[in-house]
Amino acid sequence: MLFQSKINYPKKSSIITQITLWYSSFIFILVIGVLIGSFFISKSIAENKSEKNLEAKAVQMSQALAKGHRYEAFEDGIFYSVYDQNGKVIYSGFPKGFKKDLDHQHKHKKKLSLFSMENRTFQYVDIPISGKNQWLRAIRTVDRLDKQLTELLFSLGIVLPLILIIITVGGYLILKRAFRPIQEITETAQFITQNEDYTKRIITKNNENELTELAAVINTMLASIESSFVREKQFNNDVSHELRTPVTVILSESEYGKNYAENLIEAKESFEVIHRQSLSMKKLVEQLLELTKAENPLSIQLEPLNFSIMMKQLVSDSSRLLDNTPIHLDSQIEDDLWIIGQQTLLKRLFDNLFSNAIKFTNNHISISLRQSDNQIVFSIKDNGLGISVDDQSKIWNRFYQVDSARTKDSQSGIGLGLSLVKQIATIHRAKIWVDSKPDDGSQFTLTFPKLKKD
């Protein structure tokens, strides 16, 4: 069985889920890092600000006391105490848990100090009171500052996870929408596999992004596959159609020769028919293979080619076929005309057109190669019976012959020559057409892009 009715892929998490988990984990780690970093940075800034504020408040209070202002034991979160020169407390303002008899630090040229007791930390500074044998101690509880930072961290710890959840859910929905074209690509591929419908294409939006480009590339690939499938199907149909007659004739003649031929002459006649049909089959297969090869341009290498030299050689060689015939050949070929092409295919193109002209001309064939603007124009003309207007659009079809009965008389072929010519012209980006009227001959014309030589 070539295709299964349903494709069973291994179960795995979708790429949308994986990406969501990846960036959610990254954001979570980033948030934790931001919280920790914010805490320590905020603490450092707050402590530095608190120290400067404590020093400034202590200086202000000492100046106020020096001027005789009223003593305040507590103000703006700061406790104030006044000592005499001997370290005896004159005015007492201490927070709970602070040791009163600590040495004053201005003697040791220190200002700010820390004191911890009973799981509490205090920050204090000693400032002399100008004009008096006294000094001021300003005390702040550090635990209060830590509490504020902890409350801030707690608030962030509540808000940021909510933001993380919103980002995760929103990101998942955005990714799901963004990856919708991939789902469409998958569905299209499954449809093609299950139904063998190679005409199906991925619908692309007008958005220019990587997924649109991917869909366009896959559509191009599907078109190539469809083209190959159609060519193979056409090839099989053509072969079966065209081989049916010669095979039937061969079987009939061989059976007649075996069962009914009474003498050598009758047997020889049967052998001649068989030989003639065998040659026809050989020619058919060869031309079909050439046509199939020409329909795959990726395998054909084009290169710069002096078309003038090539045509002069072909005309010279082909003119010998007209020896001992009433057909007259004349040619006009301009020099140094270059194109991008493949010499073997172009030779086949010329041979098919020339042999076609020989078959149907009365007595004259003319060939020309010239330049017109940025194009190289090649034409071959005969003065034969011509082609009707109705038939001119059909002569490029495989196996089509102007003779509607499609009989194999002495001048008929198998109807592949012009189809191959058309395909070779397409490979070379050349335009081809025929100008013809009944009883007025036919002229086949091709225009090739000119190669500019530096």
Overview of the molecule:
Its main location: membrane. Its EC number is 2.7.13.3. GO terms for molecular function: phosphorelay sensor kinase activity. It is an enzyme of class 2 (transferase). One of its GO terms (cellular component) is plasma membrane. This protein has 454 residues and is an alpha+beta fold. It has three domains: 18-170, Beta-Lactamase (2-Layer Sandwich), CATH 3.30.450; 184-299; 300-449, Heat Shock Protein 90. 51% of the residues lie in helices and 18% in strands. It has helices at 15-66, 142-178, 180-195, 210-259, 264-294, 307-319, 343-360, 389-392, 417-427; strands at residues 74-75, 78-84, 89-91, 112-117, 120-129, 134-141, 303-306, 328-333, 338-341, 364-372, 375-382, 431-436, 442-449. The strands form three sheets. Strands 1, 2, 3, 4, 5 and 6 form a six-stranded antiparallel beta sheet that branches. Strands 8-10-11-13-12 form a five-stranded mixed beta sheet, with helices on one face. The protein has a two-stranded antiparallel ribbon with strand order 7-9. A hairpin with a 4-residue loop joins β2 and β3 (89-91). α1 (15-66) packs antiparallel against α2 (142-178), α4 (210-259) packs antiparallel against α5 (264-294) and α5 (264-294) packs parallel to α9 (417-427). The two termini are 58 Å apart.
